[in-house]
Design brief:
The chain has eleven helices and 15 strands. By secondary structure, it is α/β, with parallel strands linked by helices. It has two domains: 223 residues, P-loop containing nucleotide triphosphate hydrolases (Rossmann fold, 3-Layer(aba) Sandwich), CATH 3.40.50; 72 residues, 2-Layer Sandwich (Alpha-Beta Plaits), CATH 3.30.70.100. Strands 7-8-9-4-10-11 form a six-stranded mixed sheet, with helices on both faces. Strands 1, 2, 3, 5 and 6 form a five-stranded antiparallel sheet that branches. It has a four-stranded antiparallel sheet with strand order 13-14-12-15, with helices on one face.
């Protein structure tokens, strides 16, 4: 097993009327940007709250940065920055004053460098111009940025971010992605709970998918995609013979092989590889040998969205 920043075994949380998290075995490598995915109500936020010692687990155990939680919460939390369920600030204090109050409450934060650290955190999230503005006048996106700034006041080994781009405009979303990449480049592990496909695909190295309280898949982003079912697309003016060849090779015709047509009106024949161990070049060779005119050929792997739907049966919020 690699060195893990987060590790759980059988982690479970039961409420009176339901099981929110059921037997979770999670493994988050140190230095990873881990995308924690799942529909609303799948148990993501409850998991995060257990990892941070905010709620007690009903069963199982969790280790964060190598220490049992919540037994060693006092030693672990100073090494963790978190933004969970949106930031909560004093509305009639400025952004800068709010960060000073949070920093003063951290007994591990050196007082002598407080002003410099607050200014640097505000600058990193693009709020220097609003440092003296009262938080009640902040937009939702600005409050989200301030929450990120609070997580950045001290250098952290682990950042836990629950929907970090919530309320941000496209430019703000890009800036947060760049921040997350910079954290990873510095060796910080980032655990990101998100519904945004573009966010996960562009910044995450690993993913885990929750569905109805259970972890249904986890691994690297490439492993996650490769586990999906691949299909071939053949562009040809001979769709009938093309479908016959693919069926003879053991490929499963997708929608009777009707892949639609391209912009020029050329037929597209689609088939899923399934269990057929046929190399792409062998498929093309068989098509040509049968007299099928091949104008184009491609092997498509499942997208992150397709894999998510396969695993959970629910759609994905797609934001570009």
């Amino acid at each position: 097993m690699p060195d893990l920043a987060i590790e759980t075994h059988g982690l479970t949380k039961r409420f009176r009327s339901q099981t929110a998290v059921d037997g979770l075995d999670l493994a988050v490598p140190r230095g990873a940007v881990f995308g924690f995915l799942g529909p609303n109500g799948s148990g993501k936020t409850t998991t995060i709250r257990m990892l941070l010692g905010l709620v007690a687990a009903s069963a199982g155990d969790a280790r964060v940065l190598g220490a049992d939680m919540p037994r060693h919460v006092d030693a672990v939390l100073p090494r963790v920055g978190a933004l969970v369920e949106g930031p909560a600030f004093s509305p009639y204090l400025s952004g800068e004053a709010n960060l000073r109050r949070f920093d003063a409450a951290d007994r591990h934060a050196p007082r002598g460098t407080r002003s410099a650290r607050v200014a640097e955190a505000l600058d990193r999230v693009g709020l220097s111009h609003a440092a003296r503005k009262k938080v009640h006048a902040y937009s939702l996106g600005m409050k989200q940025r301030l929450g990120l700034a609070n997580a950045l006041l001290m250098r952290r080994e682990l950042l836990v971010l629950d929907e970090p781009t919530n309320g941000l405009d496209p430019q703000g979303t890009r800036e947060v992605r760049a921040l997350i990449r910079s954290f990873a480049d510095d060796g910080t592990t980032v655990f990101v709970s998100s519904h945004l496909l573009a966010e996960v695909e562009q910044v995450c190295s690993h993913v885990g998918v929750m569905s109805v309280g259970r972890l249904v898949a986890q691994g690297t982003l490439d492993e996650f995609r490769d586990a999906g079912e691949a299909r071939v697309l053949v562009r040809t003016p001979d769709p009938g013979p093309g479908r016959a060849v693919l069926a003879r090779l053991g490929l499963q015709l997708d929608g009777a092989g009707q892949g639609g047509a391209d912009a020029a009106g050329e037929a597209l024949v689609a088939a899923r590889l399934g269990a057929a161990a046929v190399a792409p070049e062998a498929i093309v060779s068989a098509l040509v040998d049968a007299g099928v005119r091949v104008r184009g050929f491609d092997v498509e792997r499942a997208s992150l969205e397709q894999r998510f739907v396969e695993l959970t049966g629910e759609g994905f919020d797609i934001v570009q």
